[in-house]
Design goal:
The structure is a single chain. The protein is α/β, with parallel strands linked by helices. The protein has a domain of 184 residues: Glutathione S-transferase Yfyf (Class Pi), Chain A, domain 2, CATH 1.20.1050.90. The strands form three sheets. It has a six-stranded mixed β-sheet, sandwiched between helices. The protein has a four-stranded antiparallel β-sheet with strand order 2-3-4-5, covered by helices on one side. The protein has a three-stranded antiparallel β-sheet with strand order 7-8-9. Strand 3 and strand 4 form a beta hairpin. The protein is globular, with a radius of gyration of 22 Å.
C-alpha cells in the first residue's frame, strides 16, 4: 500500500510509536488500519493514491483478536475495479461486511476541518462514527447517496422535460421523494441520537484538555423540527412535506435542497460559535475532544477501539501534549506517529519503531 511493496508487523496490546521523517511511510501504516475499519482513508477521498505506483492492487490483511476470538480480515483494493474482501479466507459479497471487525478512532492534522471546515466535514465525522456504532448504517448511507444522486440527475435534466411533460416529471420525482424521505429519516434519527450521546462526553474531554476554560457544546441543525426528535415516521412525513414545498426551487436550481445531506453540526464554545471565534489552540482542543468523545462512546457501548494519533503531538503545545498523553495511557491499544521522537511526551511509554523508506524496525 502506497510506498510498501510488502510489510508484516505484529502489533500487540499497549502503545506503539512509529517515528520517521515525512514521506517515509509511518502514516501509510496506520492509514491501512483505518481503511480496514472504515473502508475509507482519513487522508484522501479516492482509493487510487493508496495503491503503490506501478502496482495493480493493494492488499491489507490483519489477524484481529476480539473477545478471545481471532478473525483474519483481508481487503483487496483494485485500481478502477471493485474492491474485494475476505473473512477467514472466505469471500464476502460486499466489502462493507467487514465493517465492525476492526474499529478505530483516529486523530490527525486534517481533523482541524471538523471545527474550521465546511458542514460536510462534520457530517462525514458523524456518519463515520455512526457506521462504527451500527455497521448496517453503511448500507443505509450508501442507498441514500445513490437516491440523492439519481434525484439530482433528474432535477438537472428536468428543465426541458418539465416543459414537455410536467406530470411525468412530478410522478418520477415523487418516487424518489419517497425513497429519500425513508432513508433520510433513518439517518436523521441516528445522527441526532449520536450527537445527544456525544455532547456530554465532548464537554468532559474538552474540560480535561483545557482546564478552567469555556465549555463546548454540540447541536444538530436540520430543516426537520427538533421537537420530532426520534419519531422516524413523523420525520419521514415532514421530509416529504418539505420536499413538496421546495419542489419549484429544486427544479429551478437542479439540486435537492431538503434532507440530511444539508444538515449541520453546530459546535459552540461558551456563548459563541466555535467556528470563526475560537483561537487556533481552542480549535485544536475542540477537534481532539470530539475524537476522544468518539473513543469514549465506542468504549462504553462495546470493546475499546484502536486509538490512532497520527502526527498530532507536533500540533499541540506542551500542556495539551501532556494532557493528551495522560488521557490515552490507559487505552488497550494506541498507535502514535511522529516525525521526531521529541514530539512524543516521555510519559507515553510503549514499543517504539523507526520507519525509513518503507521499512519498519523495532527499537531495542
Amino acid at each position: 500500500m502506497r510506498n510498501y511493496a510488502g510489510l508484516e508487523v505484529e502489533l500487540g496490546p499497549g502503545t506503539h510509536v512509529f517515528v520517521g521523517a515525512n514521506g517515509q511511510g509511518k502514516t501509510n501504516l496506520v492509514e491501512a488500519i483505518v481503511y480496514l475499519s472504515t473502508l475509507s482513508s482519513h487522508r484522501v477521498a479516492s482509493d487510487a493514491p493508496l495503491i503503490r505506483h506501478g502496482a495493480e492492487r493493494a492488499i491489507i490483511r490483519a489477524d484481529v483478536v476480539r473477545d478471545d476470538r481471532s478473525l483474519l480480515v483481508e481487503l483487496e483494493l483494485n485500481g478502477g475495479r471493485a474492491n474485494r474482501a475476505r473473512i477467514n479466507r472466505n469471500p464476502v459479497s460486499r466489502t462493507r461486511e467487514i465493517l465492525g471487525i476492526v474499529r478505530t478512532v483516529v486523530f490527525a492534522p486534517e481533523d482541524l476541518a471538523l471545527v474550521k471546515g465546511d458542514p460536510g466535514d462534520r457530517r462525514r465525522f458523524l456518519d463515520d462514527l455512526m457506521v462504527q456504532r451500527q455497521p448496517r448504517m453503511a448500507g443505509v448511507r450508501a442507498d441514500f447517496d445513490r437516491v440523492l444522486k439519481q434525484r439530482n440527475s433528474l432535477l438537472k435534466s428536468a428543465g426541458s422535460a418539465r416543459r414537455s411533460s410536467a406530470t411525468e416529471v412530478d410522478a418520477t420525482l415523487s418516487v424518489w421523494d419517497e425513497q429519500l424521505a425513508n432513508l433520510g429519516a433513518e439517518i436523521t434519527v441516528v445522527r441526532r441520537d449520536l450527537v445527544s450521546s456525544l455532547r456530554p462526553l465532548a464537554g468532559a474531554a474538552y474540560a480535561e484538555l483545557v482546564p478552567g476554560g469555556d465549555s463546548i457544546d454540540l447541536t444538530y441543525r436540520s430543516a426537520v423540527a427538533e421537537a420530532l426528535d426520534g419519531d422516524i415516521d413523523a420525520i419521514r412525513v415532514e421530509l416529504l412535506r418539505l420536499l413538496a414545498e421546495r419542489r419549484k426551487d429544486e427544479l429551478d436550481r437542479g439540486i435537492t435542497l431538503v434532507g440530511p445531506h444539508r444538515d449541520e453540526v453546530e459546535i459552540s464554545l461558551g456563548p459563541a460559535p466555535l467556528k470563526g471565534y475560537a483561537s487556533h489552540g481552542e480549535s485544536w482542543s475542540a477537534a481532539l475532544a470530539l475524537r476522544l468523545a468518539s473513543y469514549d462512546l465506542l468504549t462504553r457501548e462495546s470493546a475499546a477501539p484502536i486509538l490512532i494519533l497520527d502526527d498530532v503531538f507536533a500540533e499541540l503545545d506542551s500542556n495539551r501534549r501532556a494532557h493528551l498523553a495522560e488521557r490515552v495511557m490507559g487505552a488497550p491499544q494506541v498507535f502514535v506517529t511522529a516525525a521526531v521522537s521529541g514530539d512524543v511526551p516521555p510519559a507515553l511509554q510503549g514499543r517504539w519503531y523507526d520507519v525509513t523508506a518503507g521499512a519498519v524496525t523495532a527499537r531495542e
